[in-house]
Design a protein that fits this description.
single chain, alpha/beta
Length: 679
C-alpha cells in the first residue's frame, strides 16, 4: 500500500430492518461479544449496536493495517457515532478511497441496495472528486441479479441499463456524468466480524509486535479508542496511533505501582485457591468465598443467577439485598464466575476515605485501556466501602459493571448516594421450591447428613426466617448452627487452656460481626490480655480459634465467619454477661471510622430497659473525644431513628407505596415533617 494512500470511511445506517432480522450474529467469539458491550456503552444504546460493532471493528482493522507500515504518513479522520443518523459519519484516510459498510442477516438484492442510498452517497463525492475509488463492505449474502453483476464488475446489457436508469433518476445526475466510469470505481468486499477480529489480532502479533497472550486486550483497547475517535471526529496519524499503543502498553504496568493495588484496596479475583484445595468450611456456615464457587461447593440457584445476570445487562450496578444468611455472597460470586468469559473480576475491599477513590478509579480505567471489561464485586457494604457509589458514578461512561451485596440496614446507611447510578436491586429469599432443589443437589454430591432423610423436615425448622445458611447447615451437619455452637462453648467452658481468653475473643468478635465491624488484631489481643489474661503464644491462640471455624484471621483484622453464626454466639455468650458491658468495652478497640456504624447498630442489641442507660454511657465516653468523633457517634444514632421507624411500619409503608399516596402518608405520620404551603 502506498504511503500516501487514503480512505474515506462512511459508517452509515444499517439496512432498514425486516422483522426479526436486525441483529448480526457475532457472538460466537467471546471477545467479539465484549466489543459489542463496549460499543453499547459508548453509544448509549441509541444505535444498532451490532452494526456499530461491525463498523468499528472494520475501522480498527484499517488502523492496524495502515499503520503496520511505520513510515506511513497518511492521516485518518474518523467521524460518526454521535447520533443515529450515521449517514453523515465518515472515516477519512487521505483522499483515495471512500468505504461504506452495511450489516444484516438478510440477503441483499439490487432494490434493497438502491434503497440504502450507497450509490447516492458515492456519487455525491464523485461529483466533487473524480480521483477517489469506492468500496462497499458488507456481511450479508448478495442475491443473484443486477447487484451480483455490479459486485463482480460483469454488467450485462440488462444490468447496465438498470443501474443507468437508477442513477439518472437522482437529482445529483447531470448529462456530463460518466456513469460507466463511476460504476467501475466501486468495489465490493464481503467480510464477517469474526474474520475482522482474526485479521486484526494477526496484525497485532505480526506487524505491531505485541506480546503473545496480550493481543486480545490490545484489540479491545484499540476498538475502544476507535469509538472515542469517531465520537470526537479525531484526526489520527502515525504518531497518535503509536502513542496510543504505547499508552496501552504502559497501562499493563500501571497496576503494580497504583496505590489502590499496593494497599489492597482493589484486588483481582482468580477464584482458584491452591493453598486450600478442599474448603469444606463452606458447610460450617462460613460466608461464601470465590474458592468455594471454583470448587462447586454451593448448590446452584439458577433462577436467581439468571435474574441477576439479566439485571446486570440492563444496568451498571446490581444490588443483591437481603438479611444475613440468605446467600447473597454465594449468588454474587457465582454470577461473577459465570461471567468470566466476558469480564475480568475484581473485588473492591476498601473505599472508606474519599482520597481512596481516585487511585481506584485510575486503576479500573487502566484495565479498560488494556481491553478488559471489569466486573467489580463489593461483598457486603459497610463503613470501609463508604464511597463505593462515588467510584461507580465516575465509571458510568466506561464498560464497567458492579455487583453489590448488602443487608437491608446497611443499604439504608451506605446506599443513599446511589440515586445517580444505573442501578437494579434484586431482593432475594429462599423459597420452598428452592429448598427442595438444594436438597436434591446436595444429595447428588453426597453432602446430606445421615439424619436428614428428606428435605421437608429441615425446611420446616427454618422456613419462618427462610435462612439459606441455616438450612444448608442443617442438611449437611444434621443439626442447627445454634446447637453446634452451644456444644463448642460448653467444651470451652470445661477448663480448656486459655478458655477465658478464647471466650472473650469470641464475645467481642461475634458482637462486632453482627454490627458489621472489624477489630484490629493487636487491639483485641491487648484487651483480652487485660481482662482475661493469655498464657502461651497469642498467635497460636488465634489459630486454635480459626481451626474451630469461629473466626477468620487476616494480618491486620480478626473477623467472624458470618453474621448469622455470630448472632447465635452473641446470644450464647451473653447469658450471664450484660451485652452493654461488651459494647462499652468494644468502644476502646474500634478505629474512628467505625464509630458511626457502631452507634447505628449497638443500641438495638441492648434490651429496651437498658437502652437509655447504655446511651448515657456512650455519651459520657464521647464527651472525652474530639468533636469529629462526637459527630460520628451522633450521626449513627440519628440515622438509626428513622430507620427504626421505617422497620416498625414497613408493611404499612409498602402498602401505601403499592396503592399510591406515599407522600401524604409520610406527611401525616412522621413526627418531624410538615407540609410547606406555597402561595
Amino acid at each position: 500500500m502506498k504511503t500516501d494512500a487514503g480512505y474515506t470511511f462512511i459508517m452509515s445506517k444499517k439496512q432498514k430492518p425486516k422483522p426479526k432480522s436486525q441483529q448480526i450474529n457475532i457472538a460466537k467469539e467471546p471477545t467479539v461479544e465484549n466489543l459489542t458491550t463496549i460499543a453499547e456503552k459508548r453509544t448509549g444504546g441509541a444505535v444498532n449496536i451490532a452494526g456499530i460493532t461491525y463498523q468499528t471493528l472494520y475501522a480498527t482493522h484499517i488502523l492496524l493495517s495502515e499503520y503496520a507500515d511505520k513510515l506511513n504518513v497518511a492521516t485518518i479522520q474518523m467521524e460518526g457515532l454521535e447520533d443515529i443518523d450515521l449517514d453523515k459519519g465518515k472515516l477519512t484516510v487521505g483522499n483515495k478511497e471512500l468505504i461504506q459498510l452495511k450489516t444484516s442477516i438478510n440477503s441483499l438484492d439490487a432494490a434493497g441496495f438502491w434503497e440504502m442510498g450507497v450509490l447516492k452517497n458515492f456519487l455525491e463525492i464523485y461529483n466533487q472528486d473524480k480521483n477517489l475509488t469506492y468500496r462497499f463492505v458488507y456481511n450479508m449474502p448478495i442475491a443473484a441479479g443486477h447487484l451480483q453483476k455490479l459486485s463482480e464488475q460483469k454488467l450485462n446489457d440488462a444490468s447496465k441499463t438498470y443501474w443507468h436508469d437508477k442513477i439518472k433518476s437522482l437529482t445529483l445526475y447531470s448529462k456530463d456524468l460518466d456513469i460507466d466510469d463511476f460504476l467501475k470505481k466501486i468495489t465490493f468486499e464481503k467480510t464477517t466480524a469474526e474474520t475482522l477480529y482474526k485479521r486484526s489480532t494477526d496484525l497485532l502479533l505480526a506487524k505491531h509486535n505485541v506480546n503473545p497472550g496480550t493481543q486480545l486486550q490490545y484489540l479491545k483497547s484499540i476498538f475502544f479508542h476507535a469509538l472515542e475517535w469517531s465520537k470526537e471526529r479525531t484526526t489520527i496519524d502515525q504518531s497518535l496511533f503509536n502513542q496510543t499503543l504505547q499508552q496501552i502498553t504502559d497501562a499493563f504496568y500501571k497496576g503494580p505501582v497504583n496505590a489502590a493495588v499496593v494497599n489492597g484496596w482493589i484486588t483481582p479475583e482468580l477464584f482458584q485457591d491452591s493453598q486450600n484445595p478442599l474448603s469444606e468450611d463452606y458447610f460450617e456456615g462460613k460466608a461464601a468465598r470465590p474458592e468455594h464457587i471454583w470448587q462447586q461447593l454451593p448448590a446452584r440457584r439458577l433462577t436467581w443467577e439468571k435474574n441477576i445476570k439479566e439485571q446486570l445487562e440492563k444496568s451498571d450496578v446490581v444490588v443483591i439485598k437481603s438479611s444475613s444468611g440468605q446467600g447473597k455472597s454465594t449468588l454474587a460470586w457465582q454470577t461473577a464466575y459465570n461471567l468470566l468469559a466476558t469480564h475480568k473480576v475484581y473485588q473492591l475491599n476498601h473505599a472508606q476515605l474519599a482520597e481512596y477513590t481516585e487511585p481506584i478509579i485510575d486503576f479500573i480505567k487502566s484495565r479498560v485501556e488494556i481491553g478488559e471489561s471489569p466486573l467489580i464485586l463489593i461483598d457486603g457494604l459497610d463503613q470501609q466501602l463508604k464511597y463505593w457509589s462515588l467510584i461507580a458514578s465516575h465509571l458510568a461512561a466506561f464498560p464497567v459493571k458492579f455487583i453489590v451485596t448488602t443487608r437491608e440496614e446497611d443499604w439504608y446507611t451506605f446506599g443513599n448516594d446511589a440515586s445517580r447510578l444505573s442501578l437494579q436491586v434484586v431482593t432475594i429469599s429462599l423459597t420452598e421450591d428452592e429448598a427442595k432443589n438444594i436438597y436434591q443437589q446436595l444429595k447428588t454430591k453426597n453432602k446430606i447428613h445421615a439424619d436428614s432423610r428428606n428435605w421437608q423436615t429441615p425446611w420446616e425448622k427454618v422456613k419462618e426466617r427462610g435462612l439459606l445458611i441455616e438450612y444448608a447447615y442443617l442438611l449437611t451437619k444434621g443439626e442447627m448452627i445454634s446447637e453446634r455452637l452451644s456444644h463448642q462453648i460448653k467444651k470451652l467452658n470445661a477448663g480448656e487452656r486459655n478458655s477465658g481468653a478464647k471466650i472473650e475473643i469470641l464475645r467481642m468478635i461475634s458482637v462486632a460481626d453482627v454490627l458489621g465491624l472489624k477489630l484490629q488484631s493487636k487491639n483485641l489481643i491487648a484487651h483480652v490480655q487485660k481482662v482475661a489474661g493469655i498464657t502461651g503464644d497469642r498467635g497460636e491462640l488465634l489459630k486454635e480459634l480459626e481451626l474451630e471455624y469461629f473466626v477468620r484471621l487476616e494480618e491486620q483484622y480478626v473477623e467472624g465467619l458470618h453474621p448469622v453464626r455470630s448472632s447465635h454466639l452473641v446470644t450464647l455468650l451473653h447469658v450471664y454477661v450484660a451485652i452493654q458491658d461488651t459494647l462499652t468495652g468494644m468502644l476502646g478497640l474500634l478505629e474512628p471510622e467505625y464509630y458511626t456504624q457502631f452507634a447505628n447498630g449497638a443500641p438495638d442489641l441492648v434490651g429496651e430497659k437498658d437502652r437509655d442507660d447504655f446511651i448515657k454511657k456512650l455519651a459520657a465516653w464521647a464527651a472525652e473525644k474530639d468533636i469529629s468523633n462526637m459527630v460520628a457517634l451522633i450521626d449513627g444514632l440519628m440515622r438509626r431513628e428513622p430507620q427504626r421507624y421505617w422497620e416498625a411500619n414497613r408493611a404499612i409503608f409498602e402498602d401505601a407505596y403499592q396503592n399510591g399516596g406515599i407522600e401524604l402518608f409520610i406527611y401525616d405520620t412522621l413526627p418531624f415533617t410538615c407540609i410547606i404551603r406555597r402561595s
